[in-house]
Input
Amino acid sequence: MTTSNSRESQFPIDAMFLDRWSPRAFTGEVISEEQLLTILDAAHWAPSSANQQPWRFIYALKGSEHFETLLGLLVEANQEWAKNASALLFVVSRGFSGEFSEGKKSYTHSFDAGTAWGYFALQARLSGFYAHGMGGIKHDEIMKTFEIPEGYRVEAGIAFGRLADKSVLSERNQAREFPSQRKPLSEVAFNGKFIAD
Output
């Protein structure tokens, strides 16, 4: 087993998987585009079905003209703390193979885009940053704002930055600012069978 970051795995895994978590407290410091692109470079090396690479990232750095636009496309509860991120991103996936008019759906585009997000989160942590994935975003408004065409799917948002003391958060969010635990492995991995919740 591995112990790190108030977490303990059942088997001897690398500590980086335990060290990655999703904080809400960010310093709000301005970072360079190169720093963010370094993390995105790692993300875009994720594996994908038939090497389709369906992930797309929309990003804005704190202090840029686009940051407030992305911030406004989060649900209000996430805007409250994500305003202190150094960058905000949206993950979009391409849901088709070849040309959209050919009607060839990709059944793994969300799976593959999620893998790229996982790479992003791990590289962020290895580089001294943190990333918090968010489902609380305004999906339809994002599609309209960025004129994303049919066949693409807005998957999630990401807040990215350096960790701050939790005192920068509201009392409600301070109470939730800790690394979450996981279900026992036996509840999610089944040898030769499937067990529904």
